[in-house]
Amino acid sequence: MKTPKRLPPLFTIGYEQAKPAAVLEELTRAGVALLVDIRAVAASRRPGFSKRQLAASLDEAGIGYLHLQKLGTPAQGRQAARAGDLDTLWRIYDEHMQSEEAQAALAELVGLIREGRRICLLCYERDPGHCHRSRIAALVRKRTRSTIENLIPPLF
After folding, report:
1. What are the start-end ranges of the H helices in the chain?
2. Beta strand 119-123 pairing with 148-151
3. DSSP SS3 for 98
4. Domain boundaries, the chain
5. What's the CA gap between 57 and 22, in Å, rounded?
6. Is the distance from CB of 63 to CB of 54 less than 8 angstroms?
7. What is the pLDDT of residues 63-97, one digit of tens each?
8. Which class in CATH covers the domain with range 10-151?
9. Which residue, among 114, 99, 101, 102, has the nearest Cα to 144 in the 3D structure?
10. 106 in helix, strand or coil?
11. What digits encode the pLDDT tens for the residues 60-72?
12. Rounded to the nearest 5°, which phi and psi values hold at 65?
């Protein structure tokens, strides 16, 4: 009987209260090969975290960048999160994840993980328990049996 290949962990990271250099250092330390941006809107008021700037700094460090927008939280869910209404956020997000587009993006992510790449999911929230990336990580774990490691960059 063939033993299944052991996949690397799936990493997650949030950039809230962190400088771009600290996030990059955490990714490098973990040996991440591909950062998957799971924000619905890959823009940020924080310098260094908008899509182009982020992708460029990752490229300089030898880390790939992929934006899977359809894994992001819909506008209504982001509003609920800003209001501190996590129950509504999770209801909206779980419903969103049933959509064909979200399922296709999740399948793409799972495929990349099954290739054995060291991948990290990126979103804003520092605490993974308050972020939809924890939901995505749980879905990936069910499909791949990957372990999940939450990277926490130092505060600025």
Report:
1. 20-29, 51-60, 75-82, 86-96, 100-114, 133-144
2. unpaired
3. coil
4. 10-151
5. 12
6. no
7. 999 999 999 999 999 999 889 999 999 999 999 99
8. alpha beta
9. 114
10. helix
11. 999 999 999 999 9
12. -135, 135
